């Protein structure tokens, strides 16, 4: 774990591929296993069974780049916040209960959370505006896991997720922007209003 937190993520160390203020992009795919209710409604034995099922797949892992699985209960608060700031886990996972963990590749471009808001959340991160590459990486892992785990899927609604906003594809795509000029000119509110008209959301402003 110390080596992980002391290593700069590949997406952060990479040179930007365009003059635009896009630092990184992320594609998240949320999935749930058909045999279980959503994590927040599971008892610890059920969460443990979900985690065990996922970790058993790692023994013959040929669908994800090399990495390690980290158990949340083994992490201290500072380590968890470090991973959250690197977008490898969510702050919701910090507040979740019971057995849970995250698989993180060595280059920190891919993380798979287990028992956060959903049973499985695939998080693919790429530098700059490489949205397609982020999607393709997440999709490869999703296809492989989908063949090994029985994901909850409704014929009409699509993938079933804890958040109603993600029901269907279960996908969320985001970009991390560096906008110091707009902040100094206090124009973020105008930007947010314009984005909402395009059905985009400005969130996580620091």
Assign the structural class, choosing from mainly alpha, mainly beta, alpha/beta, alpha+beta, or little secondary structure: alpha+beta
Task: Report how far the terminal alpha carbons are from each other.
Answer: 27 Å
Question: What best-fitting shape do the alpha-carbon axes yield?
Answer: globular
Residue-averaged pLDDT: 87
Strand content: 15-25%
Low confidence ranges: none
Helix content: 25-40%
Largest sheet: 6 strands, antiparallel
What is the total tally of β strands? 8
Topology:
Elements: H1 2-6, H2 10-13, E1 22-31, H3 44-57, E2 67-71, H4 77-85, H5 91-95, E3 101-105, E4 110-114, E5 120-127, H6 131-148, E6 153-154, E7 158-159, E8 171-177, H7 180-184, H8 188-197
Antiparallel strand pairs: 1-5, 1-8, 2-3, 3-4, 4-5, 6-7
At a glance:
The chain is of the alpha+beta class and 206 residues long. 34% of the residues lie in helices and 21% in strands.
Keyword list:
single chain; 206 residues; alpha+beta; 6-stranded antiparallel sheet; two-stranded antiparallel sheet; 8 helices; 34% helix; 21% strand; globular
What does this structure look like?
- This protein is about 35% helix and about 20% strand.
- The chain has about 210 residues and is of the alpha+beta class.
- A 6-stranded antiparallel β-sheet has the order 2-3-4-5-1-8.
- It is globular.
- The two termini are about 25 Å apart.
């Amino acid at each position: 774990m110390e080596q992980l937190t002391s290593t700069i993520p590949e997406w952060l160390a990479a040179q930007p591929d365009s003059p635009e203020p896009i630092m990184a992009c992320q594609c998240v795919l949320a999935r749930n296993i058909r045999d279980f209710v959503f994590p927040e409604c599971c008892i610890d034995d059920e969460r443990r069974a979900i985690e065990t099922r996922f970790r058993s797949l790692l023994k013959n892992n040929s669908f994800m780049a090399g990495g390690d699985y980290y158990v949340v209960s083994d992490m201290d608060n500072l380590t968890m916040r470090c991973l959250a700031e690197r977008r490898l886990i969510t702050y919701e996972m910090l507040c979740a209960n019971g057995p849970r963990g995250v698989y993180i590749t060595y280059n920190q471009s891919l993380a798979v959370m287990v028992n956060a808001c959903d049973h499985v959340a695939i998080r693919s991160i790429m530098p700059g505006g490489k949205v397609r590459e982020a999607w393709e990486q997440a999709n490869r892992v999703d296809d492989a896991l989908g063949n090994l785990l029985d994901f909850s899927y409704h014929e009409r609604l699509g993938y079933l997720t804890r958040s109603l906003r993600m029901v269907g594809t279960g996908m969320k795509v985001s970009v991390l922007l560096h906008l110091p000029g707009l902040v100094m000119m206090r124009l973020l509110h105008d930007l947010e209003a314009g984005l909402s008209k395009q059905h985009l959301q400005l969130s996580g402003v620091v």
